[in-house]
Design brief:
single chain, mainly beta, six-stranded antiparallel β-sheet, five-stranded antiparallel β-sheet
């Protein structure tokens, strides 16, 4: 009898990923593309040097997407080593304003320092000045059917 694991036996698990360089951030950026969050769900913990978002992301990695409706999951996107936060076109603390995250990029200045730019739909942006890149993405709820029952287009 063959006791080797098969691909079909694997179960989908919540994501818990980290990024310590620009290449890692590209992976996390693709997973949070089209995530939505109320403007009130952003926190900068200045003393701790952390910036966090509680967002509802599309489960792009969902292997069963063809068998069921598109899903989203609530996730925490956490940036550590944050020295400063700036934003443009982002209403702060307005629970009624829903923002959509399109892309994240890291521009290194003096290694390992640099700036992370979070580009939002509607010409909004958040810029984080970091001492070093340290980002985590962690799913914190069970997946749920996307309210629109549609999956956004994902560019290659």
């Amino acid at each position: 009898m063959n006791d080797d694991a098969r691909f079909e036996d694997g179960g989908e698990a919540p994501l818990n990923l980290g990024a310590l360089d620009a290449d890692d951030l590209v992976v996390i950026s693709s997973l949070v593309q089209d995530a939505v969050f109320p403007a009130s769900e952003m926190r900068w913990l200045k003393r701790e040097g952390r910036f966090a978002l509680l967002l509802n992301r599309v489960r792009w990695e969902d292997a069963g997407a063809k068998r069921h409706a598109p899903e989203r999951v609530q996730s925490v996107l956490m940036f550590s080593n944050v020295q400063a936060v700036a934003s443009q076109g982002v209403p702060k603390g307005d629970a009624d304003t829903v923002l959509s995250l399109l892309h994240m990029a890291f521009d290194e200045s003096e290694s390992p320092s640099g700036q992370v730019t979070l580009t939002l739909a509607g010409d909004g942006a958040i810029r984080l000045t970091v001492e070093a890149l340290d980002v985590t993405l962690k799913d914190v709820t069970r997946p749920y059917v996307a309210p629109s029952k549609k999956r956004p287009n994902h560019p290659d």
